[in-house]
Amino acid sequence: MEDHARHLLVDVEKAITQLNIVDDEQALLKLRESSAEPDFWQNNIRAQNVMKRQVRLEQRISPWRQLERAVRDIYDLVILNDKSLADDLARQIEELKKRFDELKSRLKLSGPYDDRDAILGLYAGAGGTDAQDWAQMLLRMYMRWAETNGFTVKTIEESAGEEAGIKSVTIEISGDYAFGKLKSEHGIHRLVRLSPFNSDNLRQTSFAKVEVLPKIDAPEDISIDDKELKIDVYRSGGKGGQSVNTTDSAVRVTHLPTGITVAIQNERSQLQNKETAMTILRSRLAQLQIEQHAEQIGQLKGPNQSAEWGNQIRSYVLHPYKQVKDLRTKYETSDTESVLDGNLNPLIEAYLEHTMGNG
């Protein structure tokens, strides 16, 4: 029994190290100091973001520290070798082992931004109306997944297709480890089916790009020099070119070193549009930092747009047979309807297992 207790304690401490709990505790301390400042609530939006991050860090740290204390207490009792306590201690060790196994699944979600909300962009690719319809199908798939798993969805921007579907859409998915779970979706998605938009009903291949970003709404998380930004304001345009409003409220922000551009015209206020554009820009830079393994924003190169369309991550075949196959994990299923109806968790789980195995 002493060996079991010792091994459990070692495993728990190893997991705490892997999850960088000490760094989280230091970050939490800074946030608490910040929230204690007299002028903290003067900037309401910033204050709410700080409080939200505080709660998230507490939820991340607390279960592990509680488990560590409980296992340490049990281990101290076990080494006393009191025979009258043996059965009770053995039962408690088993319970703590179960708690550890439940918490251990979070090790798969220990990336730098895995606990953040996700900003998800969908872009119709090659394939005309079929591709725009495919982008709409993917949007429905992610909305259904979010709804089923208790996440909330907010639309940031949407551009409708001419005949059907959507050209592009940006949504925010909020909830526990939203980015960590959805990062598996980042890449090109390919659809093969009989086209409903073709009079000959021919087989058609369509592509859509899915961009998944961690939501970075705190300026201190990703520091951007104002000199590196070009900000343009212009009049928001509606369908058919009519003016949505009569003020220059739309905002386009360009990050000069990488060439990343974000344009937002969804909100009525220029300030709100600028804040949303800056959040998405910070989120794109964070994603680029992950992809390029860069320590500093200044080390980033612009994203390689040309390679993306050949870089498909998943195929969805509806004709001549039914199959969804992830080309990275080799996970496949013939239940295409279930996947397109939002049952993404087996694909997400396979990706997390795959990346852990390769990490």
Could you explain how this protein is built, in words?
The protein has 359 residues and is of the alpha+beta class. The chain has 10 helices and 11 strands. The strands form 2 sheets. An 8-stranded mixed beta sheet has the order 2-3-1-5-4-9-10-11. A hairpin with a 5-residue loop joins strand 9 (312-317) and strand 10. Helix 1 packs parallel to helix 4 (86-104), helix 2 packs across helix 3 and helix 3 runs antiparallel to helix 4. It is globular. The chain starts with a helix and ends with a helix.
Provide a quick synopsis of the model.
By secondary structure, the protein is α+β, with helices and mostly antiparallel strands.
Which strand order do you get reading across the main beta sheet? 2-3-1-5-4-9-10-11
Overall number of domains: 3
The CATH topology assignment of the largest domain is Alpha-Beta Plaits
Q: What integer value in Å does the Rg equal?
A: 24 Å
As a percent range, the share of strand residues is 15-25%
What's the CATH class label of the largest domain? Alpha Beta
Distance between the termini: 33 Å
Helix content: 40-55%
Shape: globular
Indicate the topology:
Elements: H1 2-18, H2 21-35, H3 44-78, H4 86-104, E1 118-124, H5 128-148, E2 152-160, E3 166-174, H6 178-182, E4 187-194, E5 203-214, E6 229-234, E7 250-255, E8 260-264, H7 270-292, H8 305-308, E9 312-317, E10 323-326, E11 332-333, H9 336-340, H10 345-358
Parallel strand pairs: 4-9
Antiparallel strand pairs: 1-3, 1-5, 2-3, 4-5, 6-7, 7-8, 9-10, 10-11
